[in-house]
Design goal:
Blueprint (H helix, E strand, L loop, with lengths): L1 H10 L3 H26 L14 H19 L1 H15 L1
Helix pairs in contact: 1-2, 3-4
């Protein structure tokens, strides 16, 4: 998607926008790579203790994961429900 925006900016001769988009893409790639290196290539802190979640935190986590999966897997269902709810509100 970023490269499509950059290509469109170059085709309309918006070179400043294209350069800003490329620089931001490089910065984002560097930050994401740093996170991945820290996750997979460094030793974990041995003094870190396992955390347990309270019941309300578990409920919020489960609901958040469920909503994310439903919206990600069945976006047309969610859009249809939203469309019918807006029709009811009119």
């Amino acid at each position: 998607a970023k490269f499509g925006v950059i290509r469109a900016a170059v085709s309309t001769e918006s070179y400043v926008l294209a350069v800003v988009a490329m620089v931001s893409a490089v910065i984002a790639a560097y930050l994401y790579l740093r996170i991945m290196v820290s996750m997979w290539l460094t030793e974990p802190d041995s003094s870190a203790a396992a955390t347990t979640l309270s019941l309300p935190a578990r409920v919020v986590l489960v609901v958040s994961v469920a909503v994310t999966l439903i919206v990600g897997v069945l976006p047309s269902f969610v859009l249809d429900v939203a469309d019918s709810l807006t029709a009811l509100a009119r």
